[in-house]
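Objective 1.3, modelling of assemblies. Example input:
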Amino acid sequence: MAIKTLTIDGDQYSAQEGETILTVMRQHNIPIPTLCHLEGLSTVGACRLCVVQVEGIPKLLPACTTRVEEGMVIHTATDKLKKYRRMIIALLASEGNHVCAVCVANNHCELQELAYQVGLVRVRYPYLFPKKSLDATHKEYVMDRNRCVLCTRCVRVCDEVEGAHVWDVAGRGINCEIVTGLDDAWGKTETCTSCGKCVMVCPTGALFEKGVTVAEMEKQKGFLKYIITARQKKEWVSFTDGQ
Amino acid sequence: MTIEDLQELSEQEQQRQSEKKHRILYCSAAGCVSCGSDNVSAMLKTKVKEHTLEKECEVIGTGCMGLCGEGPLVKVQSDNILYQNVDEVTASQIVESHILNGKRVEKNICDTSAPFFASQTKIVLENCGRINSESIDEYVAALGYEALGKALTEMQPHDVIEEIRKSGLRGRGGAGYSTGLKWGIVRKAHGEQKYIVCNADEGDPGAFMDRSVLEGDPHRVLEGMAIAGYAVGASQGYVYCRAEYPLAIERLKLAIKQAEKIGLLGNRILESQFNFRIDIRIGAGAFVCGEETALIASIEGRRGNPRTRPPYPSEKGLWGMPTVINNVETFANVAPIIRNGSDWFSKIGTEKSKGTKVFALAGNIRNTGLIEVPMGIPLRKIIFDIGGGTPEGQEFKAAQTGGPSGGCIPNEHLDLPVDYESLLAVGSFMGSGGLIVMDSTSRMVDVAKFFMQFCMDESCGKCIPCRVGTRHIYGLLDKISKKKATQDDLTLLEELCVMVKETSLCGLGQGAPNPVISTLRFFRHEYEQLLQPVETYLGGEVEVADFEK
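Predicted structure (tokens):
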């Protein structure tokens, strides 16, 4: 496989053909915020947080889906990109009902972490305060659509890893919602295996275990890597390795 | 069927037509049907029967005749007389006075020497309004399927691609990518199966070009697709048509059936080794499905969400196979290019934009309807000569091209030649060909708000900038139009527009802010007039979202 040389933020790196810019950046610990991306799941390039500037290309490209090419000169943290990332997180904050102080995922929330990471101090857009529903019909888990950021990790993990395809996205635009089954109550769907993968990959407090209260919903992030490496390489990594 | 049989069919049909003394054509496209052409045609037929004229006179439904605003339209082909605003009374007069006594019905005669008709160049629409849109014989008599025969017998697939490339034909869906190059990529791409997809998911507000072509001359599109299939090595084609076009779908179905029956589609077309089938897929009413990757997802039976490109559909398209996706109008240009040669085509238009473009004229304009003009024609000529200018002495203000992804073009840029590059240079976009004219009664903030509401409603919700960004842009425009906004809101609006444009995943999001950006560029004062000084704002109530109401 051919080796490609590329420049990221002034430093040169080598990468294998077919790798994405994000893979290379993660390998070399170059920080970049991501939300919809999760190692082990298919990439969708939907959150647009990881957009980077590649010299010679007028459009911004998402690092997670863009494959490396020989001689690419990439800028990942220009002022403009940082501003856009802040705006994206601000848009998310204004879209849902994200109230950290009363949220089960407080201090364990990726949206919260991202807000710190991109330096969000103020949301200038009016909060939309949507009236979204909550589904507590499942015996073990709860879904609160008010906290959903529509990253579709749950949709993908259920379809690609668990193979149950319980989750889907319904509606369009600002009225999009995640649904279980054919928009049935979660507890009534016959396909759900109650494996909990969706809950564990959910970046916010939208999916959580019953019985937890504020700041108690800590998610086990290592499980996906554990399953994927076991399946693909027949190796058993530590469950608590993290991502 | 062989080429000779096709020739014979054509001669028979021409013979049949020449035996008729009169051919009365009525427009049976959706525009005229909606203002009563069905009743008119019934009356024409009754009268013809009543006076036992069936032998010498036939009454035929055709595709769009162009001047939709004056419909229903009826044409007496033998005398080349076009009647406008025909009702049942006029229809009976046409038969009883014009056909029987040779006395024309003067009050309804439409002046076909007017610039609306005289300034047009028809390639795509050459058969619309001239032939029976439901008859394959008439299409064949009008040189139909000759190009397919020529391609299959005289040309190698790469010759076809080379001919299309040399003609300079560019995608008529709006982005303007070279059709020949696109086909070349698909031809070279590896895949056990390749597909041809015709994008007939025309969704821009005020656009009806593709609908008119499909309703008026469906065989032309099928022929173009079959030639494309031969050129790239595909044996299956799909027409993805929106469900809101029932008449177009009905005619397409009929056309496919007719072509299959006489061996112009299906296995061993014209006794060659080439097989090509076409199926119709009907969209469920999502604008975003006009975006090629979303369209592919929709044909595959999935939610119509776009995905990031590359890989482009030419490499990985429908079911992961190399796929040609072209617009209806692009396919409609293919047969004439093959028939007449690339040199003929490339003489029309400008250096970089060849051929003609079909526009749907709508809005505050005298001659609402469908026109086809050579590329590079000044916009002024389209609006004032062909379109007849704005009605009732209102002053022209701006023209919007490119639908919700396009921009407005004000008076000072009216001498701009209409081609892909010039439109981009003034912040607009060729788009698929909707041209909406606005006069001094239009408020530009409201225009921007209208298009933004459209984009907000049609966003698929996959990427954050488009899903939430369009919602907030709409909210800000609403606030400005209700005189509740301040300078800060305008700044916020501008920042958000640029961000949504640059970071969105697909063309819908990337193009959504264009109407705002372009109205701000040319009509900024209209926004500023509506702003409140900061003091008033501080004293007033802070607006919270009213989206739920």
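The longest strand of chain B covers residues 356-363.
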